[in-house]
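Quick entry between incubations.
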Amino acid sequence: MHREEQGSDFLNPDRLFPQGPALSIARELYESVANLPIVSPHGHTDPAWFAENRPFTDAAALFLTPDHYVLRMLQSQGISYDRLGVPRKDGRPVAEGREAWRLFAANYHLFAGTPSRMWIDHSLNFAFGLTEPLSAQNADALYDLINKRLADPDLLPLAVLDRANVEVIATTEFALDPLTHHRALKEKGLIGRIRTTYRPDDVTDPDVPGFRENIVRLAEITGEDTARWEGLIEAHRKRRAAFREMGAVATDHGVPSAATADLPAADKQKLLDDALAGRLDAAGRELFRAQMLTEMAGLSAEDGMVMQIHAGSRRNTDPVLMAERGPNLGADIPMRTDFVNGLSPLLSRYGNAENFRLILFTLDESTYARELAPMAGYWSSLRIGPPWWFHDSSNGIRRYLDQVVETAGFYNLAGFNDDTRALLSIPARHDLWRREVCRFLALLVAEHRLSKASAREIAAYLSYQAAKDAYKL
Amino acid sequence: MHREEQGSDFLNPDRLFPQGPALSIARELYESVANLPIVSPHGHTDPAWFAENRPFTDAAALFLTPDHYVLRMLQSQGISYDRLGVPRKDGRPVAEGREAWRLFAANYHLFAGTPSRMWIDHSLNFAFGLTEPLSAQNADALYDLINKRLADPDLLPLAVLDRANVEVIATTEFALDPLTHHRALKEKGLIGRIRTTYRPDDVTDPDVPGFRENIVRLAEITGEDTARWEGLIEAHRKRRAAFREMGAVATDHGVPSAATADLPAADKQKLLDDALAGRLDAAGRELFRAQMLTEMAGLSAEDGMVMQIHAGSRRNTDPVLMAERGPNLGADIPMRTDFVNGLSPLLSRYGNAENFRLILFTLDESTYARELAPMAGYWSSLRIGPPWWFHDSSNGIRRYLDQVVETAGFYNLAGFNDDTRALLSIPARHDLWRREVCRFLALLVAEHRLSKASAREIAAYLSYQAAKDAYKL
Amino acid sequence: MHREEQGSDFLNPDRLFPQGPALSIARELYESVANLPIVSPHGHTDPAWFAENRPFTDAAALFLTPDHYVLRMLQSQGISYDRLGVPRKDGRPVAEGREAWRLFAANYHLFAGTPSRMWIDHSLNFAFGLTEPLSAQNADALYDLINKRLADPDLLPLAVLDRANVEVIATTEFALDPLTHHRALKEKGLIGRIRTTYRPDDVTDPDVPGFRENIVRLAEITGEDTARWEGLIEAHRKRRAAFREMGAVATDHGVPSAATADLPAADKQKLLDDALAGRLDAAGRELFRAQMLTEMAGLSAEDGMVMQIHAGSRRNTDPVLMAERGPNLGADIPMRTDFVNGLSPLLSRYGNAENFRLILFTLDESTYARELAPMAGYWSSLRIGPPWWFHDSSNGIRRYLDQVVETAGFYNLAGFNDDTRALLSIPARHDLWRREVCRFLALLVAEHRLSKASAREIAAYLSYQAAKDAYKL
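Done. Structure below.
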């Protein structure tokens, strides 16, 4: 039905570079950064992979079922999650790997113009030497090749980190996580290269299922009275320390809005009482999250852990999908976000605190030039995180650099995060970022807005050092 | 006063194409789509034109007084609607055609850089062979030429459809419309090429003047008890069927916001009771519209008619204009729109329903990347309509493609709508869309993000087939 | 630490121009406007400079401490305002000029890619002949050179106006300002070239410290009973006349939102009573400002003064900075702004009033295409001000022209404002605007969207005549 892509232009070495006089500048800049090590300070890879270092199971489990970008696009064109092999809670059968893989391959044209297409092309080439796009024609052969290759030593998870030149990678665990895999990694001397991140949404967000039980569990783990505000904060202090032992340099907070609060002590205790009694309405739950963000900022100013806020996703917008298969499968949608008014209480208290570092991520691009860049261009604690989620794409990065650099400069940016669950896409994503950074800088040089020497320096900074600086690595 | 445009570059065949290496690719792509038939699934042409097939009256009535883009621009520079010949409700005299035309021509420089300029240049060339821009110098001669030519057989409305290679065109009628002209068209065997669209704002929006009378009239037409919720919905069911007999494949809904609701039956009846008693405040009227959108979605899931939502216009912002001359004369202004929270009730129920198709149109470009593309990239019912109204322009199309494609892909786009009241501008508008699509694709090819074969396929899809697919034609 | 910029590309004559075929068009357009006189109808230079015409004190006082763009960027990277020599309210010592200047120079790389970098490079070249960028190496020598040169006749404030070819410049004074310096200027025959602007925020905004005392003082100055609404308006009428005697052609209004109101007389008096009694809550203070904007519009329709609204800044977001050093030092951050609903009461009354002119400025770029362009493309009173504050930059201007021109045209734009407190940056800012305008027009010409003759005309208009027309100069 759909004509095949011509293989000749597959992964062209000049891809994404600007046309015209800036092309040679972009090439030169890219050559200077293409082989820098990868620093991956925020992401969602599974620590079990690295602790156990066992082969991945099959092609579909690697490229299809865990990739919500891919699943959602196929679903949007009427291909059901059953047919894509996404497991159901009720255990009813779904398509098997090869069947789902064929469907994916036969619909690969749907990804034309999307970052998924670039990531997957790159990953298939990086890991399996593919030199033409996935298609209905090569689906079976490729499926067999991948499954055969997965047991090879160079495709074990730790070997992938080596091949991809990953200097450091952070995973993300909830506050109650036992960090079992990180303990195993510590015994192997791998903490440092692999690190956890403290993401306490399970005990800071009353909208999380099991929140009240989680607070009780937090008390058990830490020996603190988490029904008292001081005890709750002390419990966080202890968990943060425990996470730091497993390499954590940062915390992460997923919140629907950027609202923060700075309440008097009595109000905080009342808020906690109401939360534990299940008495909070939607506004109360929002206020609880808001106050907890400010508390986390205070602890960061104290212990030096870098705070990340990922604000503005409306989670699980499809109740049927949630009921049948659970979260993180493609039905989370961005919302408008207000950082200026939302963060005011937190920043008024800690914005210029000496030891404090806060990295902001947005799904609302209208905040780049209006809010994030002006804020990061003033407060010493703030850095702007790279384009997040739907915006981590070529054009998304172009809009980001276009809108933040003039007001925030280059040195208030946090470099790149791949933020991925897909191990093999890590080099692809960093490569795309580096290409787009070089493109942007090359255009500035071509317009005589930046010297080539500065461009080279900034290219290296944004490709590598900025992430280390931002995360105090 | 203002120097004339030089005629030599008038309608240059390379207009809008990118400079540099992508130019030849754009040319090649454009050649492959330039002559495809026009599919116009949403617009506001007058069905009487096609049913009666009589000549248009004069140049001003053709190009000036019905074109709110043109009127508003002249008004913004202090040229009153009286002087432009826009009729008054009180019947007081306004300028005559030639006088208004001269004023338009003398101020044609105001349209530099606007889409109106491109549409009018193209239309004047298409219909009257003009090879230089309208100006004070050629105003009179052109006025005479147009008026002389209007009676020629090749400028009768049906002949214009032929010359413009229009395969199918949809008009838009309210629920109470008798569809007289479509009946005449049916007798002539023209339904199919010309179709109506069901736009029930007259009976779904309590803010419409005469709303309560309209509900009574709806009862009379359908024989249903429209004071009962079930009867009201049944009446819609009947009207939709009647519209389908006149070729309708779609419904259309003009709403100030994208709010939807999914209330229990008792609340719906109470809402209707209050609406018919005139007891609804602004929030209640909003809720009525919100519930009606969800009802319409349910009926679409049932009868397969494609649902269109045009959300976010604040209508009639100039009370003086409204009082003196009525609506649709240029004083409607876009507002911020929230699709994510607004559509949640409707999509939670029907978002992945098998027979349901919903096309969304926005006037708030900040929703492209933040809301519409992520939503259309998940829900199987959703398609993103083309840039609407103020954004249906070269740069508007560029921003649209830039911001939607990476997340929604090409195949969740609904192709092009000309959405026009101006018959002669239809080929101009489709040509502009095709040029911009080819430009966008050519740049992707030049950056090695897309093969030329895929680009050709997508160019044809977005120029022609996407509209047929989206509207189930 | 950071490599120096290479001097060879310093202020390249082709800077900011497009690459490829449009380059020569941009050059040609720019040559035709580069030397036009500067019209600066809105800004914040100190009238004492022109009235007294005394030398500036030192390099840091000229380039560093008054420039909040520069201060905030250095502060964002952890360089405290103490070390930058920004005076404290408590009189505790801060760094001296040379020390602060060295710090600025050593961190000049932070400004890569920012407009500050372009403005300062240009200013240092314009005033002191510098041909390489500021750096740690040349900091001391440059500091000495600047301080030595400041007493030279060609660097006195009035001489700078001559050298920069400034035809007219407006300062901005509050309603209670005695206009002492403008009186002195009037005696010297300089009113006309130098003009004041009426900015009555001190008596229209109940959130201004000392508001109630200011209203009393306004009564004393004008002899009106400012506790009565009619008296308050009459007092404005008198102050506006007094400002016009000092050359004022415009008023200016700095407001957090674009809210306006049109209340009945009794409500207005009650609002004033409550304001004077200190009884207004936040919503009441917002309503007071909202009503005052409509009153000011009424007075402008009466006396012909051009009204400017600068809406959407959240002022003084850092309470520590405010307490220690005061306002206007870099901690003001943009907020989302709603012009459509906000301005509705004002425009419903005065939007097409014959003598009324309103220029709107936004910090929320999402309003360009969605609100400002559609509004300015309808109401005859409206003009869109140039990109403001954080958006007055190369990419900011590109986004502005991209998003406003197609709907508002070129002739509803107000030309350029430099809006600066930094005298030496005035030619730099106008030059940047002219370059970007020529770039935009050159790209339109290269795409065959505009004839070269029209582009030349529009380039001259936006560089010079538009500001004179918009401000009735």
